[in-house]
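Here is one chain, start to finish.
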Amino acid sequence: MDTIDFLEYIKEKEHLLMMLSRFGASNLIRKGVFWKFHMHKVTVIIPTYNHSDYILEAIHSVLDQKYKNCEIIVVDDGSTDDTAGVLRPMVEQRLIRYIYQKNRGESAARNRGLVEASGRYIAFLDSDDLFELEKLEVQVKYLQDHPGVGLVHSGFTKFNNEGNDLGYRDPSWFTGVIYPQILSYWTTLMAINTVLLPRKVFEDIGFFDESLRIGEDLDMWRRIARKYPFGYIDKSLARVRVHAGNISGDKLKATEGLIEYLEKAFEDDPGLSNQFRRRAFSRMFSTMAYNLLSENGDDALHAARLNARRAIANDPLNPHGYLALGSTLFGYNLRYALARRWRLLRGWLMSRTRSD
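Its structure:
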């Protein structure tokens, strides 16, 4: 037990003894308070910006957790809506800590929360998303059973404002030792809301890089993956809301931000081969080309075509570069079209096999 854990332990025991003398053991056990003091504290950091319509639901998904020893820190990154007014009753009831700062971006808000955190474990929740009820309970147990991992994450479910599920996402590839492969994997990325990690990992790795415009979470996972294996729970432990306010409307700038992230990654680890570097950039460019195909307008089409060509130039053996380029010429996504035709062909072949 390190010094911080020991002091936290003593503080909690003193608080428990005071409550025992005041309320009696039977009342505390009946209310579940006694068991709370045998749990390590989890700090849930919620950065928010103009999400007054969603944030109460997000906070209640933490308050309703089966795991009760939590502190909730809401960092308001310069909201101009009524976020402060909406949260005032919760602040007055001491259900949350509310911190307001001038707008500096999500990374700065998360870092402020990390500075203020007192929990042994750290979780993040975007203010328009939700935790499943058992999220913290399941993941704390996992970290206690696997003390060598740098973080544990899980599957997640996307949903819309009507409450309809839009599908389960399974980023199970991010398990175990995943460095340096994490630099070249761009599909079904892990969601930050699914992550739980020991605070000591941040003390070792450092905070989020506020200089990155895009990919600051990817940068954090990369840095952790260099030193620690990842844990994974194949279950939906978070819900990620899809709405107009959180769909990127500027995918044209996203590529440049991701280039910045990858360049930093390879500068940090000059031992990686040039071949691996070119392959990683190729996969990033082809993924961005696919993403741009869903946008309307000549600018998006031109950018998609440019990214497809960049993908081919960096790795002529990457088939997705050619599929993305073909998609820009034919007007639809060849990757999905080919995948659909393959599923139909496979189904037909299986039906023929059964009939024979």
